[in-house]
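Figure 2 data, in text form.
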Amino acid sequence: MIPFWIILLKIVVVLGVLMTAAALVTFLERRISAFIQNRIGPNRVGPQGLFQIMADLVKLVMKEDIVPTAANKTVHDIAPMISISIALCTFAVIPFGNTIELFGYQVKLIIADVNIGILFILAMTSMGVYGVSLAGWSSNNKYSLLGGLRSSAQLISYELAMGLSIIGVLMVAESLRLDQIVMHQTRYLVGWLPAWNLFVQPLGFVIFFVAAFAETNRLPFDLPEAEPELVGGYHTEYSGMKFGLFMFAEYANMITSSALITTLFLGGWHIPFSENWGVSPLVMSLLQVLAFCVKVSIVVFFFIMVRWTIPRFRYDQLMNLGWKVLLPLSIANVLGTGLAILLISS
């Protein structure tokens, strides 16, 4: 039985790392976007502009919190809290390593080791839209309301494809536990090719990746914000730290989505051929955590690169892609996976 204080230690460490990483990604996005657009980016505050993160935080804390007179103040205040809470809680069931020996205990590198991890994640991500929708409605602004409505419609269309794209992974792994899904990917297909679901479920990977962009409201699917059309969308009437919470939730969601993509399709913490290295269990555990972080960082970089490379979709194009392309493809992927399993087992 793992003591409660070890569980509490894991929560504190993971929350600290996740919040620090989300703040760091805001800086990286500004520097990467500047590089893509042949600009300089933040470079004044601290070495290479690294302290720009703290400068932005101080600015957000010091700014006045403005609430429209006709807004529903209670809901207006709660909405950003819902968004950031969902973004942080979702990471609780994602394994960032195998096990590590800590103070004489074999500790699983996951906060909540539940046997329905996938269902928990789908439930939490579905609730994330409440923060955006309530923000749009409570602001009593037509642009904010349109942004909230867009987010709801977007979620419904892409949540179906996202859920169905995972079913193929579950059928192959025969488990809803995320750590078991990772363990199933530690095998090898043809001697040298790891059995990552990227190679076993390539269509499911593409569908899930595209749906993740819509789920996190990132370009080219950031229609709930859409500055040229809706000023700022659902956070038009937000300022100060409440606006900062929405921005923080977006980047935390991006990191969580990248961690989930890594877990489901990129082998999680698995390092190919590491079983032949002959290193100590502690060193191997640390290397697995490092491998997980590297994979997540690569996916996050891809999220950022796509935002500053591909133009925004029109709303009708987004809906057509969700209902007429991704949904039929995800259903075909489930049927194809079932047929393949049936043929292999027979």
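Caption note: The longest strand covers residues 99-102.
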